[in-house]
Specification:
This protein is of the alpha+beta class. It is 27% helix and 25% strand. Strands 1, 2, 3, 4, 5, 6, 7, 8, 9 and 10 form a 10-stranded mixed sheet that branches. The model is unreliable at 1-7 and 304-309 (pLDDT under 50).
Length: 309
């Protein structure tokens, strides 16, 4: 299998490459799944606590009678959610796709669901073939405790300056060394990533799922070729400081150039973070970014609700 070179793909193990070298006898199944990460230690299988990967692989073994190893497009952390996570696995099973999907959804807990399933090319790898991802981070600006939002947003009780936040975010665009935003102990061989689009915007109140009148929802959206572990949450933590007026937007440029993770800013909590989309075609990703930009522009001008899905 020929893995296209990208910094994020450096994490593809030799075991993966050996695994795919003996793929002729197998079907390669691609899953698109959605999950609420609240109850899980994260995507990756671990010895302690329950992971999303463990839940899925256990269900797949019951269906196929095989020891399945899933490869996901990214390893979301504990309490991080996903709209459209992508994972794939090899199987010798002849069960039709619709049968695998129905069986999986019948075995999975209610907070994990297979949205789509397809048979991929034999050389498809959910990480190795990806060209980019999009994450969204939700913030609720409120002076009240809001039980219906607390699992899916960061609640803060101070007013944010969105102009300062957007100005700060612009310094992220381009290919940079994002060492200042990676988690300690990261196994990535390089910290260089290419950020292609960012925005901070207020999402208008939903009539049927409303916030109190003196509260508002703020979304941060970021598209990049790939992400380091906790990179988005560390970015949000820093951008938040600009929004609170604790430093000027130009500070983020200094942090990027300094490559120093110990620059003294907090990591945003996990529950506000959503893996929104994974891309496998550069033209489609470019078009989707343009669509996103247009939707946010219309939202700011007219108060229209976004329709990104």
């Amino acid at each position: 299998m020929d893995f296209e070179h990208d910094p994020e793909h450096d994490n593809i193990s030799l075991i993966d490459k050996k695994f795919y070298s003996n793929q002729d006898a197998y079907r390669n199944i691609k899953l698109t799944l959605q999950y609420d990460g609240t109850s899980y230690i994260g995507w990756q299988r671990q010895k302690q606590d329950i992971s999303i990967q463990h839940i899925l692989e256990t269900a797949l073994k019951k269906i196929t009678s095989e020891d399945i190893t899933l490869r996901a497009s990214g390893r979301t952390d504990a309490s991080v959610h996903a709209f459209f996570q992508v994972a794939n696995f090899l199987t010798a099973s002849k069960i039709p796709l619709v049968g695998i999907q129905k069986s999986l959804n019948s075995l999975l807990p209610e907070d994990i669901s297979i949205i789509d399933i397809e048979e991929a090319e034999v050389d498809f790898h959910s990480i190795g073939k990806s060209v980019g991802k999009c994450y969204i981070y939700r913030i609720i600006e409120t002076e009240r405790r809001l039980p219906l939002f607390r699992r899916y947003a960061w609640e803060i009780n101070r007013k944010l300056n969105l102009d300062f936040m957007n100005t700060s975010m612009k310094y992220l665009i381009g290919k940079h060394d994002f060492s200042a935003f990676k988690a300690s102990g990261s196994s990535a061989k390089t910290s260089i990533r290419d950020v292609q689009y960012v925005n901070v915007f207020e999402k208008k109140n939903d009539f049927f799922f409303p916030l109190p009148e003196d509260s508002r929802e703020i979304n941060l959206i970021i598209f990049a070729s790939g992400f380091l572990r906790k990179m988005v949450r560390n970015i949000v933590g820093l951008i938040m400081q600009a929004g609170l007026g604790r430093f000027k937007p130009e500070k983020i440029k200094q942090v990027i150039e300094g490559c120093d993770r110990n620059a003294g800013y907090p990591t945003a909590p996990p529950q506000g973070l959503f893996l929104f989309k994974v891309f496998y075609d550069k033209i489609f990703m470019h078009d989707f970014i343009q669509k996103t930009e247009n939707e946010i522009h219309n939202l700011k001008l007219k108060g229209n609700k976004t329709k990104l899905i």
